[in-house]
Design brief:
Elements lengths: L11 H14 L16 E7 L18 H9 L1 E7 L4 H10 L25 H7 L3 E7 L17 E5 L11 E4 L2 E4 L4 H15 L5 E6 L11 H7 L16 H27 L6 E7 L21 H4 E7 L8 E3 L3 E2 L3 H8 L16 H5 L10 E5 L2 E5 L3 E3 L5 E3 L15 H17 L12 E3 L6 E5 L4 E3 L3 E2 L9 E2 L7 E8 L3 E10 L8 E6 L2 E6 L27 E10 L2 E11 L7 E9 L2
Length: 601
């Protein structure tokens, strides 16, 4: 078969699909090995970051081309009223546990508030115990230090970054099973490469693959091959006129979404190539609403909002031969339903000591006209809580909207349906007293260091507290570093708990201006002390802006230099880990990105 070369072939997603056709058509006499009928279904979960309801072709957005995700919608079920939380880490925590995020100690997106309590059971825990190979590649955002780390939450293999956002998407510093490594190319392509390798390695056993992509979250970085199609593109479907849309931001977001779509095609193609697509359940959804004002189906709200536009996402579930293709499910469902649903689909019996908030929606997926009772779903971000049943939403200010007829939330129908409003108000009061009340008024959790289950611990600037004139590089801590260290009276502290007494090798990631070398410092915890000296200046420029398509709000990054400062003996127990300068021959001490501990005995 000879195909004419056209401009369409130059786009990666289309090129990939054609190559797949050629490969399969030329090998017709050699079929791939199929998994036996008794083989439990594989699970692939793909989660995008800050993508909106409207950022898909199958939803009706004429600005974007998403053929692979559109095909996933045609061949699988589309849950049209699926709800997540308004921001990243709460949604991730709820997917992992089947419980509302506040129950698991998640109240923020950084500085420790994103961590999922250690007494929570995760989806990966359940599937790993059932004999599945488990892996996660991408943005974790539910805790960095083991056992908050993915390796401590049921995932055998992890590659990516544990923070809420990252400062560079092209071959940045990442981690692989807690060791610092360098990425390979554009992050989403890199994470997908790892996912494909994992699928190949585990094709003959059941596996759970979690791909939490970090786009289109800012900074708005995407390879030229995607950006070039959008940088001058006319955007014909836009946000409402009263919303200030940044068209270049929209262009960048849509380009990033098209790159995601290409990578979704790569995953699906690999499953088909290996002959295991028929026995694999593939899920796709977003973690919250869009991160800018852009076309979003006319709904009210965006990321951070508990209105429809901030918490509604398409959920696509494909399982060939088991779930009818093109099936539309209109009943309201939630991200807390995923754990019980996937365990039910895989026929895994499990016990969790804490009650779930989610329910299995297997009947909705597998049956044509199942009996289904109305239910109530809660959306929360900090003090804002909204309540949704099948027809109505009570917003966080107490207004009631008929969502079936008013996704824009323009008409308050409280006076028309006073009984409904009272019912939802009562439900919200119950949620506040039952769920939100579980969060302590102060987070007393320390950052674990040296847990017996891992020899490595990262202690990043994100989790520290600056004293004196030291400042963060940005008001959002996630990918920040400490700078402006100009006084011997200044210090940085971390509230840690050493989990195991022992000797630890410490590596400091720093930068230092020419003329400031020679500064000395000490790292202390309890009665332990380690002295260090910055002997070599290392003053790289800030980077990231060269790859940004629009101006970023987050911190730029630098190439921080690792310095082995020696070994320190740490005794088990809680206390402040303190970094303080003792001599400053120049005008400043250093900038600090990370302390890395390796237990050596």
């Amino acid at each position: 078969m000879i195909l004419p070369i056209t401009s369409d072939l130059l786009k990666p997603c289309k090129f990939l699909l054609i190559i797949h056709v050629l490969m399969t058509s030329s090998c017709g006499d050699k079929s791939p090995t199929e998994q036996p009928e008794s083989h439990p279904p594989n699970i692939v979960i793909i989660l995008s970051d800050d993508q909106g309801w409207g950022d898909f072709g199958f939803i009706g957005n004429k600005n974007i081309n998403t053929p692979n995700i559109d095909q996933l919608a045609r061949e699988g079920a589309h849950l049209e009223n699926f709800y997540v939380q308004p921001v990243c880490s709460p949604t991730r925590a709820e997917m992992l546990t089947g419980r509302y995020h506040a129950r698991g100690g998640v109240y923020s997106t950084s500085a420790g508030g994103e961590r999922l309590d250690l007494d929570e059971t995760t989806l990966a825990d359940i599937f790993k115990q059932a004999g599945y190979a488990t892996a996660a590649y991408g943005k974790w955002h539910n805790g960095m230090q083991f056992p908050y780390h993915p390796n401590g939450r049921g995932f055998d293999d992890y590659y990516g970054f544990c923070s809420g956002h990252w400062g560079n998407y092209f071959s940045p510093m990442l981690e692989h099973n807690q060791e610092i490594v360098t990425g390979n190319g554009f992050l989403i392509d890199d994470f997908t490469d790892h996912g494909i390798d994992f699928i190949e390695e585990n094709q003959n056993r059941p596996f759970l693959l979690y791909l939490p992509f970090n786009t289109p979250h800012a900074p708005m970085q995407v390879p030229d091959s995607w950006w070039n199609e959008y940088k001058d593109k006319e955007i014909t479907m836009t946000a409402d006129p009263d919303q200030e849309e940044d068209i270049d931001f929209t262009r960048a977001a849509l380009a990033m979404c098209e790159n995601i779509d290409w990578n979704v095609g790569r995953i699906i193609g690999k499953l088909e190539e290996l002959g295991i697509a028929e026995n694999t359940i593939v899920l796709y959804f977003n973690d919250n609403g869009p991160n800018s004002w852009r076309w979003n189906g006319g709904m009210k709200g965006r990321k951070g909002s508990t209105d429809e536009g901030g918490v509604r996402t398409p959920l696509l579930i494909k399982w060939p031969g088991k779930i009818d293709g093109g099936k539309s499910i209109t009943q309201i469902t939630s991200v807390v339903d995923l754990l019980p649903t996937l365990a039910d689909l895989a026929e895994i019996n499990y016990e969790i000591p804490k009650p779930l908030d989610g329910i299995s929606i297997k009947k909705l997926l597998m049956e044509d006209h199942p009996h289904w009772n109305d239910r109530i779903i809660f959306n929360q971000w900090r003090e804002r809580v909204s309540v949704r049943n099948q027809k109505f939403r009570l917003d966080h200010q107490g207004a009631l909207f008929d969502i079936e007829n008013d996704r824009e939330q323009t008409v308050d129908v409280s006076s028309t349906y006073p009984e409904v409003k009272q019912q939802l108000e009562t439900a919200r009061a119950g949620y506040l007293s039952d769920v939100v009340a579980e969060l302590p008024s102060k987070d007393n959790r320390t950052f674990p260091l040296g847990h017996p289950g891992s020899k490595f611990t990262q202690i990043p600037a994100r989790d520290g507290v600056a004293h004196g004139d030291i400042q963060r590089s940005n008001r959002w801590p996630n990918c920040s570093f400490f700078t402006n260290w100009n006084s011997l009276s200044d210090s940085i502290t971390w509230d840690v708990e050493v989990m195991q007494t022992g000797e630890y090798q410490v590596t400091l990631y720093y930068t230092c201006k020419e003329g400031d070398e020679g500064a000395t410092f000490q790292l202390t915890h309890g009665g332990s002390r380690l002295q260090g000296t910055i002997e070599t200046a290392h003053d790289p420029p800030l980077t990231g802006m060269e790859n940004d398509r629009v101006l970023r709000p987050e911190s730029y990054v630098k190439d921080f230099k690792p310095l082995n400062i020696g070994n320190i003996h740490l005794d088990q127990g809680t206390g402040l880990l303190t970094l303080k300068a003792t001599e400053m021959p120049g005008s400043s001490v250093m900038d600090v990105r990370l302390l890395f501990f390796e237990r050596i005995n």
